[in-house]
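Supplementary Note 3. Input sequence used for the single-chain structure prediction.
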Amino acid sequence: MHFRASDTSPNPLVGIALSCAGYSLFAIQDAIVKWLVADYAVPQILFIRSVIIVAVAGFMVRRLRHPSILKSAHRGSLVLRALLMLGAWMAYYSAARHLGLAEITTLYFSAPIIVIFLSIFVLKENVGPMRWFACFAGFAGVILAANPTHSPSLAPTLMVLFAGFCWAWSTVLVRLVSRFESTFNQMMATSFLFAIACGIMLPWVWKSPDLTGWALMLGLGAVSALGQFLLYEGYRHAPASTLAPMEYSGLVWAFLLGYLIWSEVPTVNVVAGAVVIVCSSLLLVWWERRAVLASRRLVA
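The predicted structure, written as discrete structure tokens, is reproduced below.
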């Protein structure tokens, strides 16, 4: 029998919880990459990360006996999503060499707003005023927290905006494909294509890692695998437009890790922005919970 992810009962609150956990791990992932990118090329980092994810996801696919992804009717969407995510990763972390954290964070968090627009026209989702409010409030919080002090150079700016657009499209495709394909199949297919694309570049960029480098790269693969699993599972339970504002919660984790690892002390505007982000997310949680309870009362 072919796997249908849509058999999972949707629950927006479960989706929100899973996505927030996933984005917290992505913040750890970004911190590890920020550490590694100073000494190693982005394709090398992505290659090792992808190989680990393929190994973990492949083991689970075999253990759970999921249908072969090669027989999927959605192979085209999986390939397109993999290419979009690869483009987003390459652009984002390449631009990180030239932009400060505040600038790159502000620019990249245009993605959730793009997700809401795409969810209307592609997924035909009904995006109510509360979801719009939560998304724009979260973006306002990002701008307040990041507080860009000057206009960045044009090329890196375009790279980050391109990364945000690619990530938004890939998020919408996750929602589409997750209705029919297992999470582990998606993880394996995407990372396998990542490994091939980055592996081709290895002869020109490879630098033998030291013990710390290997530890960070292996940890990166493990954290990324768990983060992907939680995020993909989240999209089984909630619409893309509902989960889009949850991505802003990753900013809070990013500043916390910045303090713990690099002793970066948050300024007043960072704290104020974080409060706005958290409040907008909690407001959406309250709204979704209210909607769930109302629908249950109607059924009863």
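The first helix runs from residue 12 to 36. Residues 84 and 169 are 7 Å apart (CA to CA).
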